[in-house]
Write a structure and sequence with these properties.
The complex is a heterotrimer of chains A (257), B (338) and C (322). By secondary structure, chain A is an alpha/beta fold. Helices cover 39% and strands 23% of the residues of chain A. Chain B has helices at 3-24, 37-40, 42-67, 75-93, 101-130, 135-154, 174-192, 198-205, 207-212, 217-243, 253-266, 271-291, 299-306, 308-322, and strands at 26-28, 34-36, 165-166, 245-246. In chain B, helix 1 (3-24) runs antiparallel to helix 7 (174-192), helix 3 runs parallel beside helix 7 and helix 3 packs antiparallel against helix 10. Classes of the chains: A alpha/beta (257), B mainly alpha (338), C mainly alpha (322).
């Protein structure tokens, strides 16, 4: 592919004696929907943490939009255009639904602390703009009615949706979703699949999806990479992955000969 | 003009009028002479000013502890920085602008602001290295810095060292105390309720998620610290020109704990609650002193009342066991965070 | 040149003695942090209560046992004085009980709450003990009763220049008893089942519970043990510094906390090492520098450590799972 949006080249991260991720190479192009699967403990969330700057790789390169992201603080990486959700929901528990999304608009504010204090017309204009952006997003995802509710009072599925909305408020080029279907029933999962595809089309962002539910992954991903013990063991289309013996062995164990 | 600014300016105007009235309205005292309200009710006036000072301290600390979730135990150190800086300025240069009432007041306010800046600067020095620490560690480090600031003052002869520093002009009055109080409340509330200021709350709720949403958590933590320190410095300067004598021991760990209790009682993250708590905890020792002198009560009860710190500490313990969110607390502290 | 060395060694001796006190208190901090991940602000005040326990019980015990005929006539005279040992044990037992009661009443109900809540409660307990102490014992310093007669030990001339050092009986006792207590502690932690339970709890509380460990009992035991050591420190210190007051735990407690952090909080050897180091640093600052800078320097050291290596000299770091 032409210059990929996200380029991981031979990335290794080592914690003490444990290599959580080992010589991983992964590429994602503009607007692609890629899946990352593997058994528990394979290192999938670690990959997310590496991309977003929570961990630094021990070796290897990570490039986004052509520039390296290694060594930068997470908030700077988000500014470049990478947003994420978390395996265990990490909403801002004391804030309302509206405010949760509003905080993600912080990085795009043109007017800072002084304006917040003086509260002139420029400040008012920008606050209105932010409110409009937040409400638009909430409307699209069907959460507008709960805008003033505490985010903790939302049902689980709505909280997951809210996390996605919040991430989208940062206007990402690449969205990392960490097990968004966890804890959902089948109907909700179908909704989620539609939602992810819709998000990708409407916002034009690439999506890297970590997920355990095979129906979801096979259903929407264009390409899938499989990790096991920190190494990529296979990569290809859903059909190719499904039949690959290495993948089957990783999930189900080797058959006795 | 925005509603909050209208409120601010009207409040300031009101305070101005009240101050004028207090200083110029005359009433008859016991022997028929005409005295000002302040002279007649000087005990209550004192308490009123102390409440104002405590409000500035508590609201400033609430920005750090309550809204941003950083547990600072060294607030008194910043108060000391402001107290000593502004005192040194007025003592050295107070009359350089002339001796008239306007000139000395002007010098006083400038000194207050510069004292606040000095405190803000010390807040920066403390904040930048400390803020990568969390919880217990941050608390201890801020405590340590409080001791260091105290230690520096105790060894500085120009600031009176162990003898204390006195002779400041009694420039503090109702207007300046409550005007700065109003400004402190305005600044904190305006900030926190703006989109920009929601960042503080995000940092408190989940630092990692906040960073992932593009918020520079370090910037917010340092900013909260510096602002809180600035207002503590202002409070210190006001205090210094109120009591006209300051001593390093007056800005020790106990003083920091005093302010922390106000923030906790009021409910971390509630500016209104913190103001109420500041007022209550200023009045409490006076009430206890009164109670301890009531002849009709049993001896042991009067003894306890005399010893307000015992009650204070019990209050803290009971509060944490039964209602950790304080009077007005918005944050749910009862459940353990996942 | 030899004089300079002698002076340095003298400071070292003074420092090790004071450092032993800090080490004993630091062990309590570190043990509680190890099992509960929480800093017991009130620990320093238990040390103070130990000293006061000795103040009140010492004379009674001495009356009971007498001073013993050996006092003064043997090279290490009062070492075999039963009154001293009984006073020590009584104080340790009393402090253990106090520590357990405090945990039961004030900290246990808050175990599921955020750390901040219990930290503030600890501050409250500390203030209560200090001010309650001032109310109960009076604000003025008291004079600790003479249970042993402290004097400078004579170092034989045949040991060379070292005989120029001033080493007091109390310094030897402090260092010796501390060493003894640390050996006992080590035995408990390494060789007994309770000790194993403590260690299991510090690694993984949930797993420990699943393995059938009654964490309430283990936590109470830990508090009791740590408080007993603090109580011992209170007695030992008072032998050397007979002036005791209800606020003596504030400063010592903070310094001991610095020591625990310096050594690596949660690490027992670290606490002991840290205590001795802080004691020596203090002695050097007082001996060679400006005594008024003693406290700021100790806090400065704490800040520097926390910035450079927050896990301390011997500690291990804990990562938050993202």
């Amino acid at each position: 592919m032409s210059e990929p949006l996200l380029d991981l080249e031979n990335v290794t991260v080592q914690f003490g004696g444990l290599k959580a991720v080992s010589e991983l190479s992964l590429r994602i192009g503009d607007g692609e929907l890629v899946g990352l699967i593997g058994p528990n403990g394979a290192g999938k969330t670690t990959v997310f943490n590496l991309i977003t700057g929570v961990y630094q790789p021990t070796s290897g390169a990570i490039r986004f939009d052509g520039k390296s992201v290694v060594g930068h603080r997470p908030y700077k990486i988000t500014a470049r255009g990478i947003a994420r959700t978390f395996q265990n929901i990490r909403l801002f528990s004391s804030l309302t639904v509206f405010d949760n999304v509003r905080t993600a608009c912080n990085m795009h504010l043109r007017h800072g602390i002084l304006y917040a204090l003086i509260r002139g017309p420029k400040f008012a204009a920008e606050e209105t703009e932010v409110a409009k952006t937040v409400m638009e997003l909430l409307e699209i995802f069907g959460l507008a009615g709960q805008r003033d509710q505490s985010c903790k009072s939302l049902p689980y599925g709505d909280q997951r949706r809210l996390e996605i909305v919040r991430a989208l408020a940062t206007r990402p080029k690449l969205l990392l979703l960490d097990e968004p279907a966890a804890g959902m029933n089948p109907t909700e999962k179908v909704e989620l699949m539609k939602l992810i595809r819709f998000t990708q089309e409407k916002f034009g962002c690439a999506v890297l999806l970590v997920e355990h539910d095979m129906k979801v992954v096979m259903g929407i991903c264009q390409r899938i990479s499989v990790l096991d013990y920190g190494r990529k063991i296979c990569e290809g289309s859903p059909a190719e992955i499904r039949c690959d013996p290495k993948v089957i062995a990783a999930y189900l164990g080797k058959e006795e000969a | 003009m925005e509603r909050s600014k209208v409120t601010l300016f009207s409040t300031l105007l009101l305070f101005g009028l009240i101050s004028f009235g207090l200083n110029h309205f005359h009433v008859a005292d016991g022997s028929g002479h005409a005295v000002t309200l302040i002279q007649k009710y000087s005990y209550y006036y004192d308490i009123l000013l102390t409440i104002g000072i405590n409000i500035i301290l508590a609201v400033g600390l609430n920005l750090v502890n309550g809204y941003t979730g950083q547990f600072s135990l060294g607030h008194a150190g910043f108060m000391a920085a402001g107290a000593y800086a502004s005192s040194w300025l007025t003592l050295s240069y107070g009359y350089s602008l002339g001796g008239g009432a306007f000139a000395t007041t002007f010098a006083f306010v400038i000194a207050l602001l510069l004292g606040g800046v000095a405190a803000a600067f010390s807040g920066l020095l403390v904040g930048v290295p400390s803020l990568r620490l969390k919880g217990d560690y941050l608390a201890i480090v801020t405590l340590g810095f409080n001791e260091i600031i105290k230690g520096v003052i105790q060894n500085c002869d120009a600031l009176g060292a162990q003898r204390g520093l006195g002779g400041m002009a009694p420039s503090t009055n109702f207007f300046w105390t409550y005007a700065f109080g109003a400004v402190t409340v305005y600044v904190v509330l305006s900030l926190v309720n703006s989109t920009y200021g929601r960042g503080f709350l995000a940092v408190r709720d989940d630092e990692i998620a906040a960073e992932a949403m593009g918020i520079n958590t370090t910037k917010y933590k340092v900013l909260a610290f510096v602002l809180g320190a600035f207002f503590a410095g202002i409070a210190g300067g006001i205090y210094a020109h109120f009591k006209q004598f300051i001593h390093p021991e007056g800005f020790n760990f106990m003083k920091s704990v005093d302010v922390v209790v106000m923030v906790i009682l009021g409910g971390m993250g509630s500016t209104a609650g913190v103001c109420v708590a500041a007022a209550l905890l200023t009045i409490l020792p006076e009430v206890l002193r009164y109670v301890s002198h009531i002849e009709a009560l049993p001896e042991w009860l009067r003894h306890i009342a005399e010893n307000r710190m015992i009650l204070y500490s019990l209050l803290l313990i009971v509060l944490m066991l039964t209602r950790p969110q304080g009077l007005f607390g918005a944050v749910n502290l009862k459940r353990k965070k996942a | 040149m030899a004089d300079k060395l002698l002076e340095f060694l003298q400071q070292l001796v003074n420092g090790l003695s004071q450092g032993s006190i800090y080490a004993l208190i630091a062990l309590g901090y570190t043990m509680v942090f190890g099992v509960l991940r929480f800093i017991n602000f009130a620990h320093g005040d238990v040390y103070m209560l130990g000293a006061f326990a000795g103040f009140y019980f010492g004379p009674k015990v001495t009356q009971l046992f007498g001073r013993g005929a050996a006092a003064g006539s043997m090279p290490l005279g009062d070492l075999l004085n039963p009154a001293a040992w009984v006073t020590l044990l009584v104080a340790m037992a009393l402090c253990a009980v106090i520590g357990i009661v405090i945990e039961r009443l004030c900290y246990r109900p808050l175990r599921e709450r955020p750390k901040l809540t219990v930290l503030i409660t600890a501050i409250g307990v500390s203030l209560f003990l200090e001010n309650g102490g001032q109310y109960a014992f009076g604000v003025d310093p008291k004079s600790f009763p003479e249970i042993i007669t402290d004097r400078a030990l004579e170092i034989p001339e045949s040991w060379g220049k070292i005989s120029g050092l001033t080493v007091t009986l109390s310094q030897v006792l402090i260092f010796g008893v501390t060493l003894l207590l640390m050996l006992v502690l080590r035995h408990i932690v390494v060789k007994t089942r309770m000790g194993m339970a403590m260690r299991a709890l510090s690694f993984n509380p949930v797993a420990a519970q699943l393995m059938g460990i009654n964490i309430d009992v283990v936590i109470s035991f830990t508090f009791g043990l740590g408080s007993a050591l603090a109580g011992a420190a209170g007695i030992l210190t008072s032998m050397q510094q007979p002036s005791i007051d209800p606020l003596m735990g504030v400063n010592a407690g903070l310094k001991a906390f610095v020591a625990a952090v310096l050594g690596g909080i949660g690490n027992l050897q670290g606490a002991a090492l840290g205590g001795l180091l802080i004691g020596v640093v203090e002695a050097l600052v007082v001996g060679y520098g400006n005594p008024t800078y003693r406290d700021p320097i100790v806090f400065g050291a704490l800040i520097v450590i926390l910035l450079l290596k927050p896990t301390g000299l011997l500690g291990a770091s804990e990562r938050e799972k993202v």
